[in-house]
Amino acid sequence: MTAFNVVILVVVLLLVVVVVGAVLLGVRTLRRLSLAPAPEDPAFIAEKDRQEQSLAALRNAADEANSTIDVAKSAAAAARTEAAAAKAEAKAARAEARRVLDDARAEADTVLERAHKQAEADAEQLRATARRSGEREVAVLAATTREQAAEVERRAARMDERERLHTEEVERLAERERQLTAASAALAAREAALLEREQALAEAEEQRRRELERVAGLTADSARAELVESIEGQAKREAALLIREIEADARGTAEQRARHIVVDAIQRVASEQTAESVVSVLHLPGDEMKGRIIGREGRNIRAFESVTGVNLIIDDTPEAVLLSCFDPVRREVGRLTLEKLVLDGRIHPHRIEEVYDLARHEVEELCHRAAEDALVEVGITEIHPELVTLLGRLRYRTSYGQNVLKHLVETAHIAGIMAAELRLDVPTIKRCAFLHDIGKALTHEVEGSHAIIGADLARRYGESEDVVHAIEAHHNEVPPQTIEAVLTQASDACSGGRPGARRESLEAYVKRLERIEEIAAGKLGVEKVFAMQAGREIRVMVKPEDVDDIGAAVLARDVAKQIEEELTYPGQIRVTVVRESRVTEIAR
Fold first, then answer.
1. Residue 256 in this model has a pLDDT that exceeds 80
2. Which one Pfam family would you cite for this protein (predicted)?
């Protein structure tokens, strides 16, 4: 039953009680009036009228109560109807809830059963794991206990042996003490006899000395001075001979030891021989790609050579093209550019410039990574980031055909082995040897010897004075003053002088091409310079706003004349000055 039904029922009951009370009161009043005598008194008549009015009011109240009861009954009937509908809904809801509850219980039983099974399986697995772990721990504890028991037994045996030895030592000491006591007594008697003998010898010595002084005509002090002078001269001659023998022996031993250290260091550093080349080969997916690389009327290959400065040689070699350039960094950038263009398939001048920028950044990243790998291989951890960047440039730099970065790693290993043999500071000497050619990264940009340039760089970026001195002294521009500088020179000579390490002819060829580019780059208005065709052609890119057509002709003649005066070369060198104007507009 709802709260509304309860309220209605209470109201109906109150109205029934009021109506019943009013009816009873009216019946009692009528009965009193019927039993009373006929009144004739006006007051009685007024009272009678008042009572009749009250009875009428009670009848009206009873009628209103009846109407209210009827309304309440209708409301109660409606409420009962609603209650019956609610009961039906509640019954249906309870049935649905009972069904859902039964399904949930069934599903819960199923899940619980699976959970019990899984728990039993997990528990069984855990018990098996715990049993195996316990067995292993018991076995380990048993082994440990056995070892400890054996150790205790060994210690007890050692203690027994020590105690026995101690007892024997005590007995020996007691016997020795008795012997010492007897010897002391004998020694005291002997000392007394010796004292008497010494006194007799002193007297005899004094008599002999006086006799010698009388015979020789010299006092004891004069004879002693002559004897000391004679012995001193003899000792000096013998000392000079001994020093000469020691120096000769030390020199021979030092040379043999130094030779052993150098040979051992070279033997333990197994580096590959030089395999430097000025040509790179790029394999193509098919021969039809050669036509796309050349482009319409050769515009693609001209744009590629102008942008990269690398000669692109396309011959009858199947599915391959050659890239030729004396500068290995430039050649690697060109190779990556052409490789990306072939993979992409879109080859035109504008695309060549975009891919060239990407390849140049990629080569810079490869150089940085190569420098970090070299530092890890050598074992150097703390170094200035700018020095790391400069070391990365040496990844493609060569010296007489030998890769400079590999030469630095090899030199550092040789110096470290020598320092270890001589018991010196290995990290510092390896650092000196690894950084000794750092100046070669800037030889195109700064004038001067690479040793002096490298020393200035090391000093600028916080290297110690020992490292700086070793760098500037490794080619004797500065006399070496420390052992670090001497070992740096020795390890550099070992790395560069081993068989197959360097090629003189290739280095001279590269030097000539570098000098050709330097001559042209030093002219006013020059933007880029590329020595191509193995040095037989030099292409000079000038700024069109700084050099006009007449100035380009003058520039070509000046460059050719300076090359003729300064360089020696076979055949002839063609100087080509390229002046290009570009106008770009954007359609919006």
1. no
2. HD
